[in-house]
Task: structure prediction
Amino acid sequence: MKQKRKTETLSYGVKRGRDLGFYIFSRIVIVITIAAIAFPILYIFSISLRTKATVYEDILILIPKTVTYQNYPGALDYAKTRLNVSFPEMFRNSIICTFGAISVSIIISAFASFSFSNFKFRGKEMLYTLMIASFAIPVQASLIPLFFMEKKLGILNTYLAVILPYIGFTVPIGVLILRSFFEGIPIEIKEAARVDGVSNFQMFLKIILPLSKPAIATCIILLFLETWNEFLFALIFLQNPKIQTLPVAIAKIAGGKYFAALGIYAAAIMITIIPILIVFVIFQRWFISGVTLGAIKG
Amino acid sequence: MDGFQKFKKEIIVPYSWLLPALVFLVTIVFFPVFISFVLSFFKFTGVESNYFQKFVGLGNFKYLLQHRYFWISARNTFYFVGSMAVIQTAIALFLAMIIYFGNFKYSGLVRMTIFAPAVLAPVCVSLIWRKILSQDGALNQILGGIDYPWLAKMNLAIWCVVLVNIWQWVGYSLVIYYAGLQGMNREVLEAADIDGANWTQKMFQMVIPFLAPITMLNVILNVIGSFRAFDIVYVLTKGGPAHYSEVFTTLMYYYAFSSWGPHKMGVAAALAFVMFTAIVVFGIVRIRLLKERRV
Result:
């Protein structure tokens, strides 16, 4: 009975009794894939729960015989003393840089998208194409001049040193998402507002933005992924350990100079990735639909 | 007055809304790219007072072309970008079809799990895999307790980077493919069933052609993404052993900023310009391809 309902409600595809070969094959492939995806993370997690003595004991079984949590305070301490920046400071730095950049970037790409979707003007499509094309430009192409510009302005080794480039390089993504969404807002709504005699700015603030919450959420997620994990600008522009973001500070444990015992190494990685994994699990629908939407618009 | 009103409506108002975005794009992206281009003709070591030290013409480009590391990195960038464009796209397509046609009960959970590495910082992913690929790491233990130094082999290191990058990003391509599959008309496939088409016919004559635009999109995204990837190589292999896994991005860092590098900013700018040109050429080829298909 249950099986019958299943074949009826399910979409086109394998049906249990009929396509047994494919049914089994698909299950095997997916089990192997998920194991391959999950294993590295579980492996590091397992190491982080082991003492020095048991770190290699039956490591492939993943579940340690005796669990220790000592590596976590150990990693906090290691960061403070060896990397010269504590984990709370790293998180604070990452949050300031990410959200500083995202908020400004979304506001100015909303302005630009409003212009693209609301006015007819000379050079519009050319400017838009140029903006979208700049998405493909590798950041390395502007890295060296930016470094010296920032040095001249004296903002090297401040949060602004990375926030400004993050804004510049994420605006195209914001415009890409927001313009098409703004254009999808029914013209009747805009015209009704025009008849009531609202100014452009009021229309933007009171009509367009409130209707665009889903698109703005998509933007927040895409820009968050771009900036939270960003490494190259942060590596070069933030040399002072105290203001380094998570990726830059944590990358140092790979170097011999900052040698960390294996348990500490693993715990430090886990402290870095657990918050983002939790955020991902909570908002996973948004993440996946955001990425899909962003890609398909592009 | 009329002319001014028109000018205001068609130029001033729209452009003032665009202004903040344009200011950022010009100062952060376009102007520095242009300066990179100018710098590539100068000898430039980054000494404060004297930025444009000496005009050297094509000297920096000549230096690049004669430098062994440049050719190694060109080869590696080609392997890396090519593998991401071909292998990752193929795996993602395969998995998307398996999940879609397999009618999994928890298909959402499966996709979420495979996508998960894409939200991690590439730095963390590389740190994790550094351990797995190390001599006493998990891979060697799975292979029966050998101690093969995967990351220290000259011709293997870049393929380790490819492997790790696919592990991280395959879910990204997968969810894009899956969204494409969801837009497919199932009745056509069911009709083909009735006509007695077998699954290879359905796959190669219906599903894969249907997904062609999505495949194009995934290839483009993977090319752009992997071409600029820096962190994964920097953390996983540091370009080593002996610069054998260097790609353009890490080599540029080595030329310009690395503390044991030669501090040749001009050469690095020339390399940046080579990268910029490569991506522009790629963009033009892509537009040409799109046009040809439409005609």
